[in-house]
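Input sequence (417 aa), recorded before submission:
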Amino acid sequence: MSKQHYFILASLITLLYWFLDAYTSVSLYGSSLIDEILLQTPHTLIFIKLLTAGLLFTLTLTPLFFKQRMDKNAPIPPNEFAELQRISDILFSSLSTRINVIKALEMLEESLHLESSLLFIYNKESLSLYNENEFIKATFRSKEILPFRTNPSRSAVETFAINCFLEKRMTSKESVKVENRPVTLFSFALKEPRSETALGNLVLASSNAKFLEEQTDMIEKCTQMLTFALSIAAKKELLQNLNSQYSSDTTSHFDKVLNIINFSKVQEHIDQEYKRHKRYHTQLTLVLIDITMLKNLTKVFPAEVVTTLKKDFIQLVIKHTREVDIFGKWSNDQFALLLPDVDFRAGQRVAKKLQAILDETKFARVGKISCSYGITSISPKDTIGSFKARAESALVAASAKEGNAIEVKLQTTELNH
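Predicted structure, C-alpha cell format:
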C-alpha cells in the first residue's frame, strides 16, 4: 500500500470516529447532530475529542513508519545492465582466465550483497573449488571434494554442493546454518547449451533469499558468461595438450625461437626430482614467473619486440641463477625455475634478487618490466600434481596484486611479500 493510501485510510477512520461519537452524543443528550459534529454543545469535551481523533489518526499511520524504516534497510537492487557490463569487462579482459573469473565473482558478491560465492569445477568423480574466501575456509576442509567417500563430518554447505553434483541439478535452493547463522544457498549449473554434462556449478550464499530471488535473471546471465569463459579456457588447454602430444620430441622439449626448454621438458625434470625426493628426502623448490601485463605489451609492440624481450629476460634469469637450476617455459607467457636441493627461502632470495635486477634494467624499446613470482617447496605428503598446483595457486595470488609481488604457498602455511 502506498503512502497516499495510508493517509486516506487514516482520514476515513478518524472521520468515522468523529461521526459515530457525535451520533452517540445525540442519542444520549437529544442534541442536534450538526452541533455535536461542530463541537457546539455544552457537554462536549473538546480537548479530549481532538486528542482522541489525533491519536487514532497517528496510530493508523504507524505501519507506514515501520514500512519506510524497513525499506531503508533493504538492499538496493543493482543496475543489471551496468553490473553485467562491469563483470563482462573483467571476465573477458587480457589477464589469465583464473584471475578474471575470481575478480568477476568478487564483483558479483558485492553487487548482490552475498555472504559468499562458490564456483565448483566438475571432474569425472570429484569436484573442486575454483575460488577461495573466508566463507569457503570456514565450511570446507579441502578445495578438492570427493563425493563418493563417506564423511560424517561434512558441513551443510559441502553436503549441498555434493548433492548438486550427484543429482546433476540445474538449479537448487536450500536453507542451512553456518556458524549458527541462517544462510540460503542457491545453485546454478554451468552448462553449455548443446552439452550433456555441466562444466561446474555456481553456488551463491545469501542471508536475504527474497532479494536474491528477485535478481535471478541477472544471475543466469552472469552464469552464462562464466560458462563461456571457462569453456573457452578448457578447450584452449585441451588444444595445447593435443599439440604437445602430437609434436615431435625435439619440438615438445625445446623452443628454438627462445632457446629454452618447454613445459614437457620441465615436467620431466620435476618427475626426476620428485623421485629423488621420495628416495633420498631431498628438497625441491618451484618458482613460477609471470611477466606483468605481457599480453598487453603484444597489443602495443610488434611481435618481434616482445620476442626479443622474452629472449633478453631468459638470458638475464639464466645469468643470475645456478648451473644446476632448471629454467624453462611453463606456458606461452609464463616461466618456471626449478631449484633442486633448496627450500622456499632460496626461492624467495632468487625472486627478490630478480626484482632488484629488473628494477635497474631497461629492455630494448619496452623499458622496465616487473614480474609476479609464485613459490612453493615440496613436502613429504605431496604428489607431483599437488606440488605444481600449489605453485600455480601462488602465482595466481601474486598476479592478483598487479605485478612485482612474491607469493609463497606451502602445504600448511602461506607467506605474502
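Checked by second reader. The longest strand covers residues 181-190.
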